[in-house]
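Recap for those who missed Tuesday's class. We walked through two folding examples back to back. For each one, the amino acid string is listed first and its predicted structure tokens come directly after. Nothing is annotated here on purpose, so try labeling regions yourself before you check the end of the notes.
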Amino acid sequence: MPEHVQVAIIGAGAAGLMAAIFAARNATSGARIVALDGAEKLGAKILVAGGGRCNVTHDEVSAEVYAGGSRNAIRKVLKRFDVPQTVAFFEEIGVPLKREPTGKLFPTTDKARTVLDALLNAATGAELRHPARVDKLSKCEGKCGGGFELSGTWGTLTADRVILATGGRSLPKTGSDGGGYRLAQGLGHTLTEPTFPALVPLLLPAGHYLTALSGIAIEAELTLVSGTGRALVSFTNSVLFTHFGLSGPGALDMSRYYIEAKRSDPGAALHINFLPRRGAALEPELITLGTATLLRYLAGSLPDRLARALCEQAGVPPTLTGDRLNKDKRRAFIQTLTASALPISGDRGFNYAEVTAGGVPLTEIYLERMESRVTPGLYLCGEICDVDGRIGGYNFQWAWASGYVAGLSAGVISQSTSNS
């Protein structure tokens, strides 16, 4: 007979470790909790997050910073394990957090390894097995009392309950290659169509003038505009110009909205405002510029290379003085500075995406316990769900909250079950 456990968790990333910790804390004495992961080394995504520092969460988290499932549905889960609870939990396991001016919360050590090690230590109530990729998951009906059978090259085991925490398709080298979707579909779940990269760098055509400014980062406003000219969504944050296009928080936040919009509206476009804080002041300032040059005017706000490139794009010499700037040239200059259209040619794909947009719809899950509405005894948490947040620790907060709810719920095991 195959080995039998009470709770099997598939995936031991952020959500899976959280589920393992709270399933073990809430289980009856003697219950066996096992987490299986296909990776040679656990926690690869945690270790690379936040530039190797791990942006654990944000000081203010609301459902409005997420996309995918309905905001009300997402809010229900976030309320179960909010930011104060998250901060207290990490303090409890030996990871005090600090707030940075952006509102992001990092470990005081500035090391992602601190976060991963603490989670692994806190999960000692569960057995962590890796590499142990689950290739097949099925209901075993009468063979194991209505539970589940899991198998892979490592062997087979049966479980009363299963938590799917496999991630989505982002950064597939870390193990989240979409295999969890197939397992969920095999048990009756559907997927949003399509799943696509989110928090992903965007591409510009080869030779675009901004690609020659690789390494320059500025605060800029990116606005998604519909084919009819209506502004759909806007983000003001750091934008990094690279040899391939756009990266940095502003571009990453915008990426999922741009990719989604282009699917239904081929005319949708992305505009950039290089001087988002100047607004209506630009025209009167230029009118009264006098003998100062345009390059000098921009010097306090933009790097020299970018300022010269924007003058060239607007068709005005950087040495042109304000008193020689006629109305038409002034308007063209302002248009270039504040509403330049960016001919986005694509994105860098799942290999460079921080998260996946799409997944198992929240409508197929009982949110009060993250249990499947389709297959009783199956729980889902983390990135496999149709939830993706902005950059800044929000996706980790979803992982902590949904993993907590799934683990707590799946861990409620009767004494008779634990002795089976």
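Example two. Treat it independently of the first, because the proteins are unrelated.
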Amino acid sequence: MKPFFAILLLWAVSLGFSSCGHLPEIPSRELAVELKEGCDLEQLRQELAYLEEQVNSSPETRANCLIRLARIAFILGELGPKGDKSLYFTKGKLYAETLIREQPEWAAGHYWLGLNLCGLAEEAGPKRGLRLVPQIIATMERALEVDPVYDQAGAHRVLGRIYYECPPWPLSVGDIHKSLRHLSAAVAISPENSTNHLFLAETLLKLDKKAEALQELEKVLKATSHALCPKELAADRRQALKLLKENQWAKAGSRDPAGRSSAPGSK
């Protein structure tokens, strides 16, 4: 079983831009288009280096540049080699903190600060990592106050997963009912996101609401957007099919993304 923060980081973040102000985007790159083709680490490293050169060059683009820096640093920390993770998460944390100082009313700074703190918590290990959970929750709640839609309901998704994965009081903040509330909101805001439905289904299963969980798992199979990379839609669908089968819900004649029958006992 993967550690809590590893699971959280794998699915928490999407790559689409959300409106966070009216400053123009960096004109010479199409980062969102590049990343939609897959999370290419070399492209990301080049983009990070480019933006680090540009961040102080123009007041008009600085804020959007800081958003990209915090986000790319997080993705590089999450997807890159073990030895580089803390370096990138620390960079992302610093860029997000700078953005918060300069644009405190934008959701982006609070959101990317929270995710980079998640990365640092994972690298710190379970005991030290859990100590960062209150700070992570505070940053995500602030992002939620400013813009609940940001990053495909990202703050709701992260908070819902934290309350699902963390141990309950007195060890930590785990609360399955808070998880249900946040993930239900995430699905309502961004129903096209497969991870929102998958996380909600897993919370419903823990609450023994199997019929409702079934509906959410079926929606995972129809979703069109993934929280990390588009190519990972298949991974969410496989997990949904696995949960359906484990609970003896796979319907005769239904098919997985590769076209194979998902009926019980099928090959």
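Answers for example two:
The chain has two domains: 1-147, 156-246.
Residues 28 and 50 are 10 Å apart (CA to CA).
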